[in-house]
Here is the input.
Amino acid sequence: MGFTSGTDSAPLSSDFLAEVDWWLINGRTVVIGIEGAASQIVYLDQAGTLMSRWAVD
Here is the structure.
């Protein structure tokens, strides 16, 4: 998606996005997931920088 992951060593990849089964939008945060696998949280930090990190399901 053209940004650097802020809190995780693994950025949000196009391979992950191709497999997405669901997403949830809550304000400035989007949770993107694959059924039976981990999810990634994508959000804007206080400075407005696009960040991502893995979420534990």
